[in-house]
Amino acid sequence: MSSPSVDVPSLIGRRHELSAVRRMLTGTRLLTLTGTGGVGKTRLAVQAAKALRRTFAHGVELVELASLEDGELLEPTVAAALGLREMAPSSMTTLVNYLADRRMLLVLDNCEHLLEACARLTSGLLRGAPRLRILATSRQALGVYGEQVLNVPPLSVPDSGTAVRDILRRDAVRLFVERAAQVQPEFAVDAGNAETVARLAQRLEGIPLAIELAAVRLRTTPVEQLMRELDQHFEVPAEHARSALPRHQSLRGTLDWSFGLCSGAERRLWSRLSMFAGGVDLEAAEAICSGAEIDQPDVMELTAGLVDKSVLIAQQREVGVRYHMLDSIRAYGRERLTAAETQKLGSRYVEYYRQVVDRHRLERLSPHQLEGFRTLQLDSPNVRVALDLCFGRAARAAVGLEIASALWVFWIIAGSITEGRHWLERGLQLLPEANSTRAKALWVDGLLALHQGDLKAAMPRLAECHALARRLGDRSALAFATQVSGIAAFSAGDPKQGLELLEKARAEHLAAGDIDAASINLFYAAVYGSAEVPELGISLSERFLALCEARHAQVSRGYALFALGIAAWNQGDWRRTESLMREAAELRSLINDRWGLTQCLEVLAWTACAQGLYERAARILGTAHPLWRAMGASPSRLFPHVRGHEQCMARARAELGGRAFSAVFRQGSRLGVERAITYAIKQSDTE
Fold first, then answer.
1. What gap in Å lies between CA 236 and CA 214, rounded to an integer?
2. What is the 3-state secondary structure (H, E, C) of 563-610?
3. Which of 218, 262, 283, 424 is the least buried, fewest Cβ under 10 Å from its Cβ?
4. What is the mean pLDDT of residues 653-675?
5. What angle do the packed helices 369-391 and 397-406 form, to 10 degrees?
6. Between β-strands 148-151 and 60-64, what pairing exists: parallel, antiparallel or unpaired?
7. Residue 318, SS3 per DSSP
8. Which residues 6+ apart lie within 8 Å of 619 measured at CB?
9. pLDDT recorded at residue 350
10. What is d(CA 69, CA 51) in angstroms, rounded to the nearest whole number?
C-alpha cells in the first residue's frame, strides 16, 4: 500500500467501525467514510486498508487529496499516485486501462473539497474497472449511484460519575492517555485525576484531533489546569459542558484555544504556513513567511514551537526536514489570513517558487539533477498553488506561464504530461500577447502533446510558435520549434525530414552556445534517427553520453544510455544493447521513471530473443504489456520501437508455439513492476 505523505498516528479503538468497513466492502464497490473534521476518518481508512490488503490480489493504493485544490487535476493526480505515466491525452483512459482487470482497493482520502470531480472519477472508474473497490473519506457523501456511507462517530467518552476502571476503558480517554505519555512519560490516570480526565474527554466530545491538541499541553501544564483553561475558553460551566455545547463544535473551539495559546509571532507563522499545500522546509518558511513582525532569524524557533504544540508535524525526507499541517489545522490557519496579507504573501510565494523551478530545471546537465527532481516532486503541490495564484490575476499570468514552461522536462519525466498541458493551455489563454514567454510555451505545449501521441493538437501550436519566433527574432524559440517539428515529422512517418529538422535545430543551439538544448536534441536525434542511420545514432548518443558524464548529470545519463542502446540495437550489436539497457533501467528506477523503464524492458525482450532465449523474451514482453497499456501507449505505435517489437513478438511466438507463448506472456504480465524489473535485468533466466 502506498504510504501517506504525512505520518498517520496509531488508531485507538474503532473495532466496531473497522468491522463495519470490512463487512460493507464485501457488498458495495464504493464506501464513503463521513464525519466531522478531526474525527479520524483518515486513520480509520488507513487501518482498514492495511487489514484488507491481503483480500485484494493487486493490493491497496492510498491517494491523498487534501493538498489538491483544482478538480481538473484530480485524474492526473490519481494516475501519478498510482505510479502511472500519462502518455495518452486522457488521464481517465490511462486509469481505466491500468485498473480494468485489477482486483484492488483504491483509497481516496479527503474528497470533500472536490466532491463533483470525485463523483465523476469514481463513477468512471467503477464502470471501467469491474473488480475495483473504492474507499473514500469525506465530510459528506459523494452522491454516486450505488455508494454506501458509513458515518464515523467521535470516540466514546465516559459518563458522569463513572468508576476509574470504566473511565480507562473509554476510547477518548485511552487516546488522551497515550498522547499524554508521549509528552509526559510519567502521566497516568488515577483516583485523583480520573474525574478531570473524564470531563476533559467529555468537553472535547471525543474528537481525536481536539484530544491530541489538548494532550500536548501536558508538557507544561498539569491536567487540572488544562481543564480550567478549556472551561474558561468555552465560557461554559463545567457541569453543563456536554449539554450546552453545540454538537461537534469542540474541534473549532480547541483550535481557537490552541491558537490563543500561541504567541503572536507563532499565530502569524501558523497562518502564513497554511499557504503551503505540500508542506514546507525551513528555507521556504524563512523566505516567504518572515517580515511584518516575524524576523527571519526567529522562524526556526517559531517553527519548533509550532511542532511542540502539534500544529506542525516534522518529517525527515531525502532532501531534508519538511513540516506539514493536518488538513483541519491548515484550513483554520487559512481563515486567519487577511486579504491584504494573502496578497502580499502571494507575491513572495510566487517569486520563491519561480526561483525554485528555475534552480531545478532538469534540462540542465548538472550533478544536482536527481536532487532537483526529488525537490520538484515534493514541492509539486506548492508549485500548483503558485500557478493558481498566477493565473488568478492577469498581472501574474506571464510569470505563471514561465513557471509552467520551465517545468517541461519535469512534466515528461514525472509522467505528469496532462497536468503540464493543463497549466500551459490555461496560461496561453490568459496571455495572448506576442512575446517570447508565449513563444516558449507554444513549443513546450506542442512537445507535450507529441509525447501523448496528440499530433493533431501539436501542429497548430508549432505553426504559431514558428511564426511568432520569426516575428520576434527569438532564435532560441525558433530553434526549439524546429526541433519539436522534427519529432513531429517522425511521428507523422517522415524520418528523413525529421532528421533534417533536428540537425538544423542542433546547429542553432550550438551556434548560440546552448549545450543543454543541444544535448536534448542529441537524445531525440539518436533515438529516432538510428533506425534510419545506425552509425549516426551511435555517434550522436555517444556525444550525449560524454556530455552527461563530463557534467555528472545522473538523470540525463540514464537517457543517454538508453539512446546508445537503441542505436547499438539498430547496428545489430545485441550484447552491447543488453548491457546498456540494464544500466539505463537501474538509473531510471532511481526516479521511478515508469515510461523509461517500460522502454528498457521492451528492448531487453529483443536482446533475449536475439540470444535464442525465447521464453525469457516472451516473459519480458508480458511484463511490459500492462505497463504500456497503463500509460495509454504501445510499442507498435512508437517509431523507435515498432520494428523491434513486431520482430520479437513474431519470432518468439513462432519458436515457442502460440499456446506456450501466450502462457509465458501471461506469467510475465502478472509479475508486477518491481519483480518485472528485477527479472529483466538479471543475467540469467533462472528465477
1. 17
2. HHHHHHHHCCCHHHHHHHHHHHHHHHHCCCCHHHHHHHHHHHHHHHHH
3. 283
4. 89
5. 160
6. unpaired
7. coil
8. 664, 665, 667, 668, 671, 679
9. 96
10. 30
DSSP state of 220: T
* Rounded-to-integer distance, Cα 24 and Cα 151, Å: 12
Mean pLDDT of the 452-458 span: 91
With beta carbons less than 8 A apart as the criterion, state whether 157 and 205 touch. Answer: yes
Q: How far apart are CA 155 and CA 170, in angstroms?
A: 8
Cβ atoms of 352 and 379 within 8 Å: the answer is: no
Q: What pLDDT is recorded for position 10?
A: 66
Contact 296, 290 (CB under 8 A): yes
Q: What is the pLDDT of residue 648?
A: 94
All three cell numbers of 91:
488521464
Q: What is the pLDDT of residue 415?
A: 83
pTM recorded for the entire structure: 0.88
Whole-number Å distance between alpha carbons of 357 and 352: 9
DSSP secondary structure letters along 614-670: HHHHHHHHHHHHHHHHHTT--GGGSTTTHHHHHHHHHHHHHHH-HHHHHHHHHHHHT
- Choice among 356-370, 373-387, 620-634, 670-684 with the minimum mean pLDDT: 670-684
Query: Mean of the pLDDT values across residues 415-428?
Result: 93
- Tens digit of each residue's pLDDT (9 = 90 or more) over 458-491: 999 999 999 999 999 999 999 999 999 999 999 8
Pairwise CA distance, residues 473 & 248, whole Å: 64
Burial class (CB in 10 A: 0-12, 13-18, 19+), 146: exposed
More confident residue, 93 or 447: 447
The residue type of 337 is L
Residues 138 and 443: their CA atoms lie apart, in Å, by 40
Contacts of 586 (CB under 8 A, 6+ apart): 681
Tell the residue number behind the cell numbers 483554520, with chain if given.
332
Mean pLDDT of 263-284: 94
> How many CA atoms, within 13 angstroms, populate the side-chain half-sphere of residue 325?
23
Q: b or e along 628-642 (b: 16 or more beta carbons within 10 Å of the residue's beta carbon)?
A: bbbbbbbbeebbbbe
Residue 203 phi, psi dihedral angles, 5° rounding: -55, -40
* Residue ranges of E strands in 299-432: 313-317, 320-324
Q: Which three cell numbers stand for residue 405?
A: 514552461
Closest-CA residue to 678 (of 600, 611, 570, 614): 600
- Cα radius of gyration rounded to whole Å, the chain: 28
Instruction: Please state, in angstroms and rounded to a whole number, the distance separating the CA atoms of residues 416 and 411.
Output: 5
d(CA 525, CA 506): 9
User: Is the pLDDT reported for residue 86 higher than 70?
Assistant: no
Measured CA to CA in angstroms, residue 470 lies from 435, 509, 649 at distances of 11, 16, 46
> How far is it, in rounded angstroms, from Cα 580 to Cα 569?
10
Instruction: Give the integer Cα–Cα distance in Å for 168 and 175.
Output: 10
* Pairwise CA distance, residues 423 & 388, whole Å: 9
Rounded to whole angstroms, how far apart are CA atoms 511 and 517? 11
How open is the CA angle 355-593-683, to the nearest 5 degrees? Answer: 140
Rounded distance between C-alpha atoms, residue 164 and residue 204, angstroms: 19
Residues 6+ apart with CB under 8 A from 339: none
